[in-house]
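User: Can you help me understand a structure? I only have the sequence.
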Amino acid sequence: MLTEFGKIFVFLLVAVIFVIALVIVAWLIRPSRPTKEKLMTYECGENPEGSPWVKFNIRFYVVALIFLIFDVEVVLLIPWALVYRQFGLGGFMVGAIFLIMLGLGMAYEWRKGDLEWERAKIIPPVIKRPVFSSKETREAEPVKSKQLV
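Assistant: Let's start by predicting it. Here is the structure, written out as tokens:
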């Protein structure tokens, strides 16, 4: 007799075995006919130019992730907007807090500069060293350290 966790374990075990079996069967029965066209980067008839290992700017991914985060949050507002009056002040406050947090997140991303497509380049500070002649540098006295008493 299985417990509830045992039933879940058996279900997961059968699912994993099923997936592995299907992958192996598909690998065994699939045709393998590699051609020059199939091994190219693009199969759409477009001739590739350059290396396929091109470095993309991370800004594409950051903007996509920010869009997904805020898009999902806005989708969550639709059910709230339909029923918040039924819950009175409590329902309104929950939505207001959610909107405030959403606004703070947007302000944070804006302030951080992640919404700007092209950031200003940071110019590192330059430390100017005093210019001595080679003779003065050799004759400079070593710095005396204070001795602790």
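Now, to help you interpret it: The helical segments are 4-29, 59-83, 88-112, 134-139. The chain has a mean pLDDT of 80. Let me know which part you'd like to focus on.
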